[in-house]
């Protein structure tokens, strides 16, 4: 899957309430209350933007989510 399709898929998942993570469950991908997509480290709430300039690059290195069967799905 190319980067732009991955970005759109990640946004869709987050917008539809599916928990998305980067690398491990300690790095949650979220959309904040002003519409920014972020990667938040749950240990101290440090965050970075999920996407780079103009949403053309992905700052997450290995994003994934769990499907309804609990299986890890890489994006």
Mean pLDDT: 93
Specify the biggest β-sheet.
Answer: 6 strands, antiparallel
Rg calc: 12 Å
Catalogue the unreliable spans.
Answer: none
Order of helices and strands: HEEEEEE
How much helical structure, as a percent, in the residues?
A: 10-25%
Quote the distance from N terminus to C terminus.
8 Å
Q: Looking at the structure, what is the overall shape?
A: globular
- Total helical elements: 1
The amount of beta strand, in percent, is: 25-35%
Strand order of the largest sheet: 4-3-2-1-5-6
Structural class: alpha+beta
Number of strands: 6
Task: Describe it.
- There is one protein chain.
- 17% of the residues lie in helices and 35% in strands.
- Strands 4-3-2-1-5-6 form a 6-stranded antiparallel β-sheet, covered by helices on one side.
- With 75 residues, it is α+β, with helices and mostly antiparallel strands.
- The N and C termini lie close together (8 Å).
- The longest helix is centred in the N-terminal third of the chain and has 13 residues, at 3-15.
- It has a domain at 3-54.
- 17% of the residues are buried.
């Amino acid at each position: 899957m190319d980067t732009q399709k991955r970005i759109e898929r990640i946004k869709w998942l987050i917008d539809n309430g599916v928990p998305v993570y980067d690398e491990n469950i300690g790095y949650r991908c979220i959309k904040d209350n002003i519409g920014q997509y972020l990667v938040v480290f749950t240990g101290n709430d440090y965050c970075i933007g999920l996407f780079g300039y103009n949403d053309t690059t992905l700052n997450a290195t290995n994003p994934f989510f769990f499907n309804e069967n609990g299986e890890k799905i890489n994006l």
